[in-house]
Design a protein that fits this description.
alpha/beta; Rossmann fold; 4-stranded antiparallel beta sheet
Length: 234
Amino acid sequence: MAFLEIDSLNAFYGKAQALHDVSVQVEAGEIIAIVGANGAGKSTLLDSIMGLTTVTGDVRLDNESLAGKRSAEIVASGVGYAPERFNLFPYMSVEDNLLVGAYTARDDIDKNLATVNKLFPRLKERRKQETSTQSGGERQMVSLGRALMTSPRLLLVDEPTIGLAPKVCVEISEALQKMRDELGATIVITEQNANFAMTLAERLYVLESGVIKAQGTVDELRGDSRLTEAYFGH
């Protein structure tokens, strides 16, 4: 039994279907990547795990179904989410944005805040700075830090490198690896940047138009024509 099991998931926005019979399995302590072009349904998949879309099928975390649960209940069960849209409070300080993430893990605030500051020393230095004045890379760090404040067993990270300079991408990659290796988090990322995904994840799922087109280890999918087709349609 996998730690995270997504079974025949269909997702809808009104009458429009965004995901079609998607199945994904993630083992405990694994980093996997959902890769695909813009509009492939990657964010929808993470939103669906978080209970933010209308779905059929099932999502199970450690053999417990998340179907039908409210987002707050899903967070409380151990799922942290760092969305690509950031969803930060722009006129609040870094520290206050982080503390917003602690509402389901109030007993762990001091421990989690120390962990975030160790992972991202820049945030500790700028803890009183409003996030609206920060760079994209710093806001991504705040988003990841806020997700960690929930004490997650499973961390969902949507497009962690979008719009970021290569040097910052390396920092984000190193932080995600530490979250897995030192904190024991299981991590699912979505990425348009397949090269970045291949350097970080053990396995990939290729998503195109809401359908899983291929899956396998990095070595199995490196150079696979289905990966190219998912991005370029040929």
